[in-house]
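Handoff note, outgoing to incoming analyst
You'll be picking up this chain. Sequence as last confirmed:
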Amino acid sequence: MEGFPLSLAVNGREYEFADRLVSYSAVESGPSASAVTPESVAVVGLGYVGLPTAVEFHTQHVRVVGVDVSPDRLENIRRGEVDLAESDRRRLRAGLESGDIRVSSDSSLIGSVEAVVICVPTPVGADNTPDLGALREACLGVVEHMRAGQTVVLTSTSYVGTTRELVAEPLRRRGFTPGDDVYVAFSAERIDPGNPDHRQQDTPRVLGGITESCAKRAASVISCVTRSVFLVSSPEAAELTKLYENVFRAVTLAVANEFAEVCRGLELDPIEVTLAAGTKPYGFLGGFPGPGVGGHCIPCDPYYLLWQLRERRAEAPLLEQVMRAIRQRPHQVVRRATELLREHGVATPNSRVLVIGVSYKAGVGDLRESPALPILGGLRASGAEVAYHDPLVPRVELEDGTELVDTERPEEQRWDLVVVHTLHPGVDYDWVIDYPLVLDATYLFDRVPHRRLL
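Most recent structure output, in case you need it:
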């Protein structure tokens, strides 16, 4: 396997530490190497991670069995009605037609393949505690149907110790010995939905096995979907690596949002200042501000670490404060919106407010943890008549049960305020310039010269 040159950013001194990470390519040909590329893989969970992973395995000429508990999801996959890039949709169709990709709800099919990759969601509940239901059920099904000689790789982000607790130890109780007759490892997904610049094959993965032989076997599986795999000493090290990645991103975004408010007070453009700071070739890793943080990772994953720390009676006060700031950001958008309405002599009750884009990021129709939902709910609770326009999201349901549908021709209606939340590529937004009051929560919609910022 030919990987990428290692690129780190550790206070500008990455050259001192590059040899601390071991690439799979450096060990796969060693004296104890026994790993071979699998001919068949089961992907458990066919969501935003599992489905593109299944397609990538198929592209590398691996026979794929996709297992998912949702009949609706399976039917949508068979019809090709899924949120994939067009090139991946074509590859999915080809795999389904040839039979090299098979999708089913039958978990017993896990026993028919050489390797298993678990890709189920790990959300948090309303109280921000980990929701482990899907993960536990998936691991139970895998453990039940595994046979000697198979490799299993957990990719779902979770607390430190998950792989050992939910996979390795249950397999031991079944009479298997990880490292001898089954092979168990953790390698977190690093999929960036809607971003063509971060292809799965081009994104390095970190992997830790229960034993060295587990790591090598699992790396031979994961190297089918990425050209670069780096090995760490244990599943726990790999699990915490993923949490650290998203904790760092959460901190960066919280700082970016707070700094944007500083810039507004000083009448400066936070995008200009961030780009200027980014010219420094070391020591600065910035982020752009926005209306909040959504998606499957950053608003959720840090809570897995905080939950585990509380269980151990430990604290992470900085991270606690960061996550509070992230939770509060949509409410800041609502306050700013009502402030602008008041400045323009419009009472929030009975005002007409349009939110542009409700998915959590550009180019995808994913509503998970989207800041737009509490923004719409907060404006509605303030008495405003709210609507939204998003060609990728036909309808949304707010926390109070209210259902809204996409406003297809918003330019034909009167709006007291337009809130820019998500801008999808290829969509015409030039009509927004005709509205006198525009709140740009993306900080990037500068085609409207009279826009106001958060």
